[in-house]
Amino acid sequence: MQKLTLILLILLVSASSLFAQQATLKGTVIDTSEKKNLTNSVVALLRKSDSVLVTFGRTDKSGQFTLSRFVPGKFVLMVTHPAYADYMDEVEVKDASPVNLGNIAMILKSQLLQEVVVSHKLGAIRIKGDTTEYKADSFYMKAGSSVEDLLKKLPGIQVDKNGKITAQGETVQKVLVDGEEFFSDDPTIATRGLLSDAVDKVQVFDKKSDQATFTGVDDGQKTKTIDLKLKEDKKKGYFGKLELGSNGDKYWNNSGMLNAFKAKRKFSAFGIMSSTGKTGLDWRESMNYGGTGNGMDMGMSDDGGMYITMSGGDDFDGGSYWGEGFPKGWSAGVHYSNKWNGDRLHLNGNYKYNKLNTEAAGRNTSKYILPDTLYYINEFGNNYSTKERHRVDGMYEVQIDSSSSLKITAGGSTGKSNSFNVTKTDWLDENGNPVRKIDQRTSSIGENKAFNSTLLYRKKFKKQGRTISVTFNQDYKENESQGFLYADNEYFDSNGASTHKLIDQKKINDNITSLVNGKVSYTEPLSKRALLEFNYSMSNNHRQSRRTALEKTDPGSPKYEDVVDSLSNDYAFNVFNNAAGINYRYAKPKRISFGFGANVSRADFTRKDLKSDKEVKYSFTNFFPSANITWTLGSNGSLRFNYNGNTQAPSIDQIQPVADNSDQSNIKLGNPDLKQAFRQRFNISYNNYKILSESGIYASMSFSTVQNDFSSMTTIKNGTRITQPVNVNGNYNGNAWIDYSRKIKKLDVSVGPNLNFNVSRNVNFIDGLENTNTNYSVGFGFNIWKQKEKKYTLSIRPDFRYNYAKSSLRPDVVTKYWTQDHDVDMSVTLPWKLEIGSDVNFSIRQKTDAFDKNNNAIRWNARIERKILKNDAGRIRFAAFDLLDQNIGFNRSINSNFINERTYDTFRRYFMATLIWNFNKNGKPMGW
Question: Which residue range or ranges hold the Outer membrane protein beta-barrel domain (predicted)?
Fold first, then answer.
């Protein structure tokens, strides 16, 4: 009897437990095309671990179904209907609470068959939240094409001749490979070094900080990122590319890249030697090396002015020459990454070396328009520079246990630079009479070093959604330079009589920047879909600048010993910040997610003149609101809105109370009374892609306004422009962008119109008078692309832009003009393994009162190549660059008070022969 009682008790407890854990799953099955509910569809729930059938049912007259009486867990949901393609998706049921899956869309088999047979592009593009995913094999690429060639064909992505990538209207800052950093600070190593046939998928998204990714709460730190997912068969063995090119004279272009894989171990190496501008520097890094641009570009400067840049394409494959003049570049690097111990340990490291020598000559023609007069400035200059850098960075991550991890990143660099400049400048009044002549020579030798590190600890608790994370950041930079300034200034009075002033100085500059930051974040779930995040951070930003100007005691002496007090100073600027915040986050999968919150901080500022030992302290209390929302629109669409506010402290160069006379025409003064600026940003974006029609639309709009923005107060007198930063209110800028792509199946042509608009309002002061600059620009482009596999490809990309600028000080002077930039690319496959190709760029700029010169140019490149070696792994190419010899270096900057046009030396017509070898081997590399 006791045994029977015990058995009954055990059965009763077990039954109660099972009953308490029973779950329910609901949903509605609909047709994708007609949006009608589907009756009598079979809905089956399979256990994910072993595919065992757990339960099943059918949809009723309204297309609804309910599955119940099963234990929570991870499952595979399968929906079938005779006329429709099977639907499968993974589902997780965490507890006994009813789960409503909403609408489940089914595709007719007839539509699916048409998609597969006719277009071969089912799932070519998928949009999941803020991630757009492209399947690489859905876009035909010629053998030997680079990833950059692939990106140019993807809707919503543009790549200019410099390698600068724009995705969904925003500049791409990072390119990852399989989710990992790949030569970190140079995206073009991946886009130009990797072959397109190695890529399985291309993902475009806004990469959040590691801490925000972990907590699920947006902290405002976003980086437009591309992640290249490699094919599995390319992760076994090795593949790479070797390129050797020369014209037998002063032009040479040699490069190579190797990628080797063994399980989860990855090794990559590259090297570049080039005198054609292919330096291996990406568009961002090239600007740090003194580059100015390549191809034609238009934008707006911080003071509200417009600029246009145009210099010739240097390389048929789209090299990366950015600097003016004629560069010689050397670049090399290695990359290593590995995961082991069941992926609990992860190591990633990079080393990179760059050296760039440049010789350049150029001319500036400028006009200053003032309320009562104007000035003309003509400037001729020659420059030689050399820069060299070593950089090492790495990441180590360890999964401590199933709930916690530790990630450490660190990087450092050292660099040297050397430059010499000769400049001759003439200032003329409105009648063409001389005001000032400057004959200036400067030289500089510099060294710099930097080190940064990040430590991130993450911990998940047993309660779903409860987490804590701690991050620590450190960044240190030091720059030392010394050089000489020699300037012969000749001033003219109204009668034409002149006087001379000679400047002969030695300059010594030292700058140190040190940042330390720590943050802790805690999340607490409010429900399965909502959570609160609490955070606290503390940071200290210290900057010090020491400037020393020395003159000779005796003009005949070689020693510089007398300190020029007006040009010398030792200054420190420190900002200590405490901040705390709270954020709310809600997410309903495949439907909607949103968040809002705010941070409050106290910033303590300290300015100290270390020479006079004078110190000024002051504080600000700041409020940082934020909000974001994302709607998921079907399977391939999304609508996002984002708002945030943040402050920006002035740089030490802006506040240091000392004059910088290194450019005798433009003297810069610091302003220690500058306040911090507060910027508010609004952004909305919409993406949608329709698989069956192969059409997509990508649009975004943003607007920002700044309180206490940094602007300038300019005084022009006796052929000298003196500028000092000041705070202003009323500045704003906005832009809108839309790109539409569609396949016209009858013509087998892909088309893609795009439209963009920019507007800005910027306040500054000229000769003590407030001036408001208003600028507009409207751009319209159109992409037409057609190809016949193994026969030909044709791409036509016309682009038009209208620019308008006016100033409140001179409302009678309005600057408006058109620019055009059109590209035509074509390649034809011939018998005998031959291929010919050509690309032409038409750059057209409307003449204006300020610019009456014709700087239009047609840049025409052509090539012929033949495939060689086994499996067509090699190519011999003969190419001609700038056949019409019209390539010019050119840029233009405009606002209603200052207009500048610059021309400079760049590559003209030349020819080159190149040998290219693409190699690969599946399996284990020898000795690896």
Answer: 459-760
Q: Which range has highest mean pLDDT (159-168, 540-549, 623-632)?
A: 540-549
Q: Which residues contact 274 (CB under 8 A, 6 or more apart)?
A: 252, 253, 254, 255, 280, 319, 328, 329
C-alpha–C-alpha distance, residues 601 and 729, integer Å: 22
- For residue 852, name the pLDDT band (cuts at 50, 70, 90): low
**Domains by residue range for the chain, with CATH:** 22-116 (2.60.40.10)
Reference 37, options 92, 79, 67, 93; nearest CA is: 79
What are the structure tokens assigned to 149, written together? 């060639």
Average confidence score pLDDT of the chain: 82
Poorest-pLDDT segment among 315-319, 397-401, 746-750: 315-319
Q: Are residues 484 and 443 in contact, defined by beta-carbon separation less than 8 angstroms?
A: yes
* Alpha helices (H) in 146-275, listed in sequence order: 147-153, 188-193, 210-215
Beta bridge partners, 334, equal 269, 351
Coil, strand or helix: which one is 649?
coil
- Cβ neighbours of residue 98 under 8 Å, at least 6 residues apart? 23, 24, 25, 26
Beta bridge partners of 10: none
Matching residue, tokens 């300015």: 607
Whole-angstrom Cα distance, residue 667 to residue 655?
Answer: 15
What CA dihedral angle connects 163, 168, 173 and 179, to 10 degrees? -100
Phi-psi region of 289 (alpha: psi -120 to 50; beta: other; left: phi over 0): alpha
Q: Evaluate whether 452 touches 477 at the Cβ level (below 8 Å).
A: no
Residues in the chain: 928
Q: How many other C-beta atoms are found inside a 10 Å radius of the C-beta of residue 819?
A: 20
What pTM value is reported for the model? 0.74
The 10s digit of each residue's pLDDT in 590-627 is 788 899 999 999 999 999 999 888 999 999 899 999 99
**How many whole angstroms separate alpha carbon 485 and alpha carbon 550?**
10
Q: Are 309 and 891 in contact (CB under 8 A)?
A: yes
Pick the closest to residue 629 from 621, 619, 639 (CA basis).
639
Q: Which residues contact 780 (CB under 8 A, 6 or more apart)?
A: 753, 754, 755, 799, 800, 801
Strand, coil or helix: what is 260? strand
| Cα 332 from Cα 416, distance rounded (Å) | 17
* Residue 445 token pair: 């030798």
* Tens-digit pLDDT profile for residues 799-824: 999 988 888 887 877 878 888 999 99
Look up tokens 């048409």; give the residue.
114
pLDDT tens profile 405-424: 999 999 999 999 999 999 99
Q: Could you tell me the end-to-end alpha-carbon distance of the chain, in angstroms, rounded to an integer?
A: 71
| Long-range contacts at 286-292 (CB < 8 A, ≥ 24 apart) | 286/162, 286/320, 286/322, 286/323, 287/322, 289/322, 289/323, 289/354, 289/356, 289/387, 290/323, 290/358, 290/385, 290/387, 291/322, 291/323, 291/324, 292/322, 292/323, 292/324, 292/891
Which residue reads 């009668």 in tokens? 495
H-only helix segments in 57-135: 109-114
